[in-house]
Structures are given as C-alpha cells and as structure tokens.
Design a protein that fits this description.
The chain is of the alpha+beta class. The chain is 30% helix and 24% strand. The chain is globular and about 35 Å long. The relative contact order is 0.22.
Length: 106
C-alpha cells in the first residue's frame, strides 16, 4: 500500500529519461546517479520536505493522459527532472536542459 512513510522506489524505464541521462556529460551523469541514490533511501515524506530536491508540482503543463499531476525536482545543480508519483514509485519522465524548460517558460 502506498503511503508517505513508504520508501521511494525508482522507475527509470522511460525511454526519454534514459536518453537524456545517457547523453549527459560524465560529471553531470554521475551527479544524477548520486541524486537517484539519495532519493531511493528516502521516504515520500522526506522527499517532499527535502530542500535540496525541491519537489514542486508543475501547473503550467498539462500532465500526460492517465497521470494526475507531474512534478519537478532538482536532479543536479543545473538541471531538474520531471516525474510523477505512482504508488510507491517515482516514475522519471525526462531531464530538462535547464530550469526554465521544466516549466515550459522558453
């Protein structure tokens, strides 16, 4: 049963997310992996409150069909990821090239 005290489980299977991750330069790719390792050790309550990750609902973009809401979180110092929660899973959708692109402000 999904709950706020459950550990966050990672879903990295989205092909767009994989493409963005695998084409990052090595230092940034390693920073993403460090962040993902941190996330998988957190409960959902901890993820929501973590000031470094800055989990935020994106209201300027309509979520894909079948998804209630999409969120952004800081995945590296310069980039944010777009994801949604599905039970205990964080399903990562993409890595934005910069902060403004996350919110479609460009």
């Amino acid at each position: 049963m999904a709950g706020s005290e459950a550990k966050v489980r990672l879903d990295l299977n989205n092909p767009v997310f994989q493409d963005k991750l695998l084409t990052l330069q090595k230092p940034e790719r390693h920073a993403v992996l460090d962040t993902l390792n941190k996330i998988r050790q957190l409960t959902w309550n901890q993820l929501y409150r973590d000031q470094g990750l800055k989990w935020e609902k994106i209201t300027s973009v309509k979520p894909p069909k079948g998804i209630d809401a999409i969120y952004s979180l800081r995945i590296t110092q310069a980039r944010r990821a777009i994801a949604h929660r599905d039970g205990d899973f964080i399903r990562l959708l993409t890595i934005a090239p910069d902060h403004d692109a996350t919110y479609c402000r460009k």
